[in-house]
Amino acid sequence: MPRRILLVRFSSLGDVLLTTPLIRALRARHPTATLTALTKEVWSPLLSANPHLDQVVTLAPGQSLVPLARAVRRAGFTDRLDLHASVRTRVLRLLVPGAWHGYGARRRERRALIRLKQNIYRDHVPVAERYFEAARHLDVTPDGGPAELFTSPAAEARAQEWLARSELDARLPLVGVAPGAAHATKRWPVRHWRTLAGELTGRGFGMVLVGGVGDRVAAADIAAAVPGRAASAAGELDLQATGALLRRVRVVVAGDTGPMHLATAVGTPVVGLFGPTVEAFGFFPYHAQSRVVEQSLSCRPCSSKGGPRCPLGHHRCMEDMLPSEVLARVLELCE
Prior knowledge:
Layout: E1 4-8, H1 13-17, H2 20-29, E2 34-40, E3 55-59, H3 65-75, E4 79-82, H4 87-95, H5 107-116, H6 127-130, H7 153-166, E5 174-178, H8 190-202, E6 206-209, H9 216-224, E7 230-232, H10 239-246, E8 251-255, H11 258-265, E9 270-274, E10 290-294, H12 316-319, H13 323-334
Parallel strand pairs: 1-2, 1-4, 2-3, 5-6, 5-8, 6-7, 8-9, 9-10
Helix pairs in contact: 3-4, 7-10, 8-9, 8-13
């Protein structure tokens, strides 16, 4: 009897993309299996065009888990993989009793590193490979490849149309910039982004800025520093089209955020700016051409996800990260 495998990861952007190496490995090892992913509706475009999946099931905003659990029970999955280890997935597991398989979230190690600055991690396994722990019984191993975002022809067309409307000189090599982050402490100061924009455009690059609706003001401010050489798509393109746009640039500069993983998933080199978070948490660029910029400070890490303000009030992990250093890493990747 062919396997029916369910993979559950509700959020967020980078975390969902980092399930794709496991999805790819499952398809290669179990070619006749039915593979179904369950995620929040907002993140479904990250998986909707993935050829290794047979189905993407979504949880709509405000939707109860009860009817969703009923559908999961009816589907008769032979293997149920919890790749989230959250309160929501614990509830789902109670509503759908039976054998579930999870992974080690390393919460104890994370707390020790944040609160006590003691590194008790036994290993430094990237999150994408931690997910494989949930599939030990399925005989799969990482294949050494990156996360993947498959984009539809419609998304490629939207990205190309946006570029045509941007009025950027088509002859310019482009650098992508993602200045936003869900949490303030992960954001590089706008003044540093403006300086970097001037340095890049002075060297003959054009810039495209990406992000959500909440990033529009910062993106417009940065673009205004180099009129005619930068254009902002923040809040204009959906996830699929943003991925298609990032495929068209030479390098992407981003913080420890979803757009960084979006860039690696379409094969674009990245410069990752890491402030309150560190490599041990598992979210450095995964099997991608990349450079990471970070400061050696005794107060790092102060959080696993970032926060509204620096606990010490100085935010040196991002304030002291100089545009010249970031520029040097961009130029290395453009060689």
